[in-house]
Amino acid sequence: MLDHGGAEVSYRITSITALGDGRYDVRFDGIIDNAGGYAAGTAVRLEKRYCMIPGGSAAYLAEDIDDQTLTFTVRDRVDAPGSSGFEPGDTLQIDLEQVVVASVDGNTITVEARGANGSSVLSHPAGRPVAKLSPQAGNHDPASTSEHGAYQYGMIQSLRTEPDLVPLAWPKTVGSSAGEWMDRFYWRNYRAPAANRGGYWDSGSNARAGFYLYVYYVPSYVDASRGFRAALHLP
């Protein structure tokens, strides 16, 4: 991100090379669109993007689509570990709607039909997030039209190792059986859920090691029955 007269302009970085003394050689994808370039001292902010869906991928719609569109393009795809992008057979979540991928040609996706799995058929504006559902977990309540409806969950098997994500203890893989952490991860693949850490007090089998993560409810949601607790698990 570059400061352009008080407004930030983003460019995709292709490489960063350390030159020493706090200096870096930064190469961009394409041409910087600013007459005269940028002056020395211009503020530069590095913005990293991660897909947080275990084995999933995320992108943005590159164009508006109506409720009849079967082929559309996406931009700025990011893959989580274990995912190679969008592929035929994948289920995608676009806001409240789900679609199943029929074919992929670069950034162009064709879907089998609209409103898969009983979900609502909707029009979507350019810039709407497109999320590939995790193949590691089930697809629950896909027909819901609630702010906190369709979701996925699984038992945490391993955690992300990227330096930025290690402090978050963010799940990398999930499954149907308890792993080392013995906790569950629930998440929603659309809109803006808040992250709650710590399990329900009456559901110890879902949160025994303190890593239980719930990324499901809207940020305004309040719940007094969830929290951290010390626990000893004996085999």
Task: Describe the protein's architecture and organization.
The chain is globular. The strands form five sheets. Strands 5-6-9-8-7-10 form a six-stranded antiparallel beta barrel. Strands 12-11-13-16-14 form a five-stranded mixed beta sheet, with no helix packed on it. A two-stranded antiparallel sheet has the order 1-2. It is an all-beta fold. It has strands at residues 2-4, 7-9, 13-20, 23-28, 57-61, 71-79, 91-94, 97-105, 108-111, 129-132, 152-159, 171-175, 184-187, 195-197, 199-200, 213-215, 226-227. Strand 1 and strand 2 (7-9) form a beta hairpin. 0% of the residues lie in helices and 35% in strands. It folds into three domains: 1-47, no CATH class; 57-132; 152-227, no CATH class. It is built from no helices and 17 strands.
Work out the count of structural domains: 3
Total DSSP helices: 0
Specify the biggest β-sheet: 6 strands, antiparallel, barrel
Strand order of the largest sheet: 5-6-9-8-7-10
Name its key features.
single chain; 3 domains; globular; 235 residues; six-stranded antiparallel β-barrel; 35% strand; 17 strands; mainly beta; five-stranded mixed beta sheet
In short:
The chain has 235 residues and is mainly beta. It has strands at 2-4, 7-9, 13-20, 23-28, 57-61, 71-79, 91-94, 97-105, 108-111, 129-132, 152-159, 171-175, 184-187, 195-197, 199-200, 213-215, 226-227.
